TrEMBL record:
Pfam families: Beta-prop_WDR35_2nd, Beta-prop_WDR35_TULP_N, TPR_IFT121, TPR_WDR35, Zf_2nd_IFT121
Keywords from the UniProt entry: Cell projection, Cilium, Cilium biogenesis/degradation, Cytoplasm, Cytoskeleton, Repeat, WD repeat
Organism the protein comes from: Prymnesium parvum (Toxic golden alga)
IFT121/TULP4 N-terminal domain: residues covered: 1-330
Name of the protein described by the UniProt record: Anaphase-promoting complex subunit 4 WD40 domain-containing protein
Amino acid sequence: MFVYLSKKIAIPNGVKLKSLRWNATKGWIVCGGDNGLLKVLKLDSGRAADKKGAAAPSNLSMNQTLEGHNGAVVCVCWNEIHRKLTTSDQYGLIIVWMLHKGMWFEEMINNRNKSTVRGMKWTSDGERICIIYEDGAVIVGSVDGNRKWGKELKTELCHVEWSPDGRNIIFGTLQCEVHIYDSTGNFISKLPLHCLEEASAPTSLIGIHWYDGSEGFQDINQPTLAIGFQNGRLQLMRHEADENPVLIDTGLVATNLQWNTDGSVLALAGNFGAGGAGRDISMVQFYSPLGQLLRTLKVPGSGIHALSWEGGSLRVALAVDSFIYFANIRPDYRWGYFGETLVIAYTQPERSDTTVLFWNTRTDERSVKFFKQLLAIRAASETCVLGTPADDGSAQFVLILCNVIGSPLDAKYIDFEPQHLLITPYHVVAANHTFVYVWQYRTLMSKLTSVDLGTGSLRRKEGRERAFHIDDDPALNASLEPAVIVQGRYPTPDQIIAMGASQSVLLVARESGVMHRYSLPHLSLDQQYTLRFRPQSIAINCDSTRAAIIDTNGVLSFFDLSPGATEGGEVMQPAAEGEAPTRFERKDAWDMRWADDNPELFALMEKTRMFIFRGLEAEEPVLSSAYICSFSQLEIQAVLLDQLMREPESPSKEYLLKFETRALREGRELLEKASLSDATKYIEENPNPKLWRLLAEAALQKLDFVTADQAFVHNSDYMGVQFVKRLRLLDDAKKQAAEVAAYFGNFDEAERIYRDLDRRDLSLQLRANIGDWGKVVQLVNQGGGDDSMLQTAWNRLGDYLYEQQRPARAAQYYIQAKNMEALMNCYCATEDWTGLARMTTVINEGSPLLIEIGLRFAAVGMSEEAVAAFTKGGNIKVAVESCVASHHWETAVKLAESYEFPEVQSILAKYAKELLDAGKQLHAVELYRKANQYTDAAKLLASMGAEIGETRMNPLRAKKLFVMAALEVERMRKSMITTAAFEGTQTAAQTLDSLVEEDKATGGDKWLDSSWRGAEAYHFLLLAQHQLYNGYPADAMRTALRLRSYENVLPADQIYAIIALSAFYAKFFGQCSKAFIKLKSLSLPEHKKAAIAKLALAIFSQYSPADPATKSNSCPNRCRAPIKEWEGRCAECGTQFATCVASGRSILDPDQTSSCRVCKHRFYNSELRSKRNCPLCHSPLQLGMHHGSSAELNLDLRREHSIN
């Protein structure tokens, strides 16, 4: 950083100042002094000057004197949140001031009349204020004037500070002690002062300041609590319990200290004793949070009574005697510029890490990276390097090489902290106080050494690394050994303090004044120089013949590095005849930059002025406070970092400035006003590629091809020379003028010239060459060009819109160009599958594009559209595979049958086997049904029903499975009949053959042929249970007796057990006795037989085995024999009776019944009542008709329906 005094304000009548404070948010400055002096000042904001890069003006925009104090105003403080000012004088009078219509007025007054106020401090949120008196009294009040609490401490107080969170208060005493209290006044602890442990003389406390973190932290572990003493000792702590604070002995007689607004710099004001008869020198020392001395500012006057930072930390105000001095700060930002990209690092209050922004100043593209702790940024050529500690918790540090978007290209680990970091187009150089590390990350072949392009692949190749101790024998530095290990090596007493590097030279300056010169990349020690000053920064010009050095006092001097330089190396100022030459120096320098293409040119920043030098001759200065980014082709690119760092998240191009050298300005002026010969003569005297380029352009505009050719040759512009050669071949001056206009990008003017020549073809060719396809379409429609050119234009417009992520608009142009492939991509990008399906209808059969369209449809699950595209494209195999992949087996089988594709059956069988092996029988059924494999589906369902039935756990599920199996058989039979009807009339033999085939298909499995019987069996079993448990035992017995016909489906013991049970409750003991007899005759376990016998004995010892009298019905046939309700056959004539599936009764009167169109089973209309579904298969019914509805069954196996 660099500091210099910029302004002085005198207080009227020479009144001595005692206090000073700068409002960090609004810019007001309050100063208090003897005799009740209290003023509020405000400097101009300087926003208009910021945009031009000039230093902020320091004119006063407010100068108000506040009256109310009689004694010396010794204490002032701002409440920046609520815009209040609190002041106190030596007599203890406290006044709170408020702002009203741009003026300050009294709001509250308080006078304790007992002691002097020694300190006042608001909390960071502005809600509470703590006031301390010298006698130990403490008062804490709120912003509205109410007193929260007060306390009398048994000690003399001198300083007060709140913790950033407002939970603790720190008090400093006149006895040089620091006490910690909580926010309610309870004592916590006494803070240990390690910095006074070796102090020999008594001292006093001069200040306590705790940075509140409102603008973030450069390092989350940096010290924020500063405690200073009059003897110059400082103690910097990370928190109040820090056991390892940073201790500094400044050597000053200190008076004041304060952190800047972002906590990165601590300012300490005091006096330095000159010794002997010399008077004390007032100065301000600036320290980093870790105790590094950054800069010293000497101040005139007898002593600094107060200091305060401006908001933004770019200025500091000092109260000296009866004056206010202002010093400007030029911070050392962490930034770099390379390849039109600006990289800056900044902190955010809401984040604990460091944010790094990569901003492309040309395209305005931005990328952001985050680092836990960033030490430095350096940039050169096309890369930048970032120094940061390793994230793995080790003691190592990482050098990360990044490109213009912040992507890491390579990284190297080193064993010491890179306190000095440099980068050139070929090397990265890092050093601490003792060790130097050199990494050759790039070679003259213009490629990174870490990535070598091999044959079609990337091959890692380590870049050359060297590290050495600064005290090592120079002969060792030239060895070819790998990087030496620096851990455990002793630190040098003569430390490294500055470095500079170019492509071929490395300069290392040491604390003793010795500067080593090494050659790169060999790293051999070529020479040593002796400096008479302490360097701060070193820069080497482009041909490594001269080095610019800025010392710690801001003085710039030069060293001659050329082979014929004098032994001292210092560059001398040319002197008049008879005078001794003097060393070239420039004072108050804080930044400089050599030109990239001229070793004699450099730009220098002195205070608020920019100088451009050619050799040692300076041009007229320009007012600016910008930081220099680059200097090439007689132009300086600079950036207003002070303004940019205020809003780093939204950088503006207004912060970028360009400055031209005098040669460039004069060259432009000559080209505009003088002749080309005069301009050529001037440029020959001041050669530069930029000037030759300007001359060539001016000559082209005047069609002076001789001069233009000469200028292009001097500029080594081969393409320009070829352009001039082509112009000379043209036979018309107007054509030449048109080509020149196009060369300069004035395409409208070139087209106008071609139109005047009636050469629409040349206009069309011009627009096509520059890619202005919209204009090409317009010209073709006006009569130029042909259809192929128009189609090309439509395609290019579509390509442009597609690249801009606007596929919907691009599709419109592709339609006009009939570019089906590109149109397909647009439809897919916009998910316009309807449009893509329409497109398949207009593409010729067999086109390969249809296969690609089919793949796109298949990828999104649109199987039908995919099959249509594949089929039209002629690839049946892919169509079948698509159906298989999407489980559309029916379509796959149809395709396979139509196009004789045999593999589908094997695929189907393999997939079904996988499902069955995984226990997914229902998935396998679904697979068979989709593939129209009715037989396999029915077999699997029937076997599942049988397995479920054998468990006797879920008869309803078994019934459903049998129903589904039966329906699959019906689908197969219906399919055979439909196919036969479709193929035309069959002969009797053909019909017989189809019936035989049907019998073969269904007769191989006992369950397949009798699936309806299985469904009936479990249906009647469930119906009997339902009737029995609903209190109708006679109906239950009637239904259970029906089960005797299904002994091949249901277990016999289950059948006769329910018959016996229902007959017992119906008091039909005859039927009950027959059921017990049947149970005894079955092959059952002995314990079950014993239980049955015991139960029968209990029943029939009480009841006789006889049935009660019942009403009998007559056979509807001619025999008229009596028929019981549970009998399904007439014993006289042998007539079989259907059974009502709703009640289990025999159907003797068919006129009172209906049947289900799905399962063909009958039921009494009176039994259904309000039910609308078939009791057996649960299909929807249409009552009142002899036959039910023809709706298909959609049986949900996941819900167990009631039998009703």
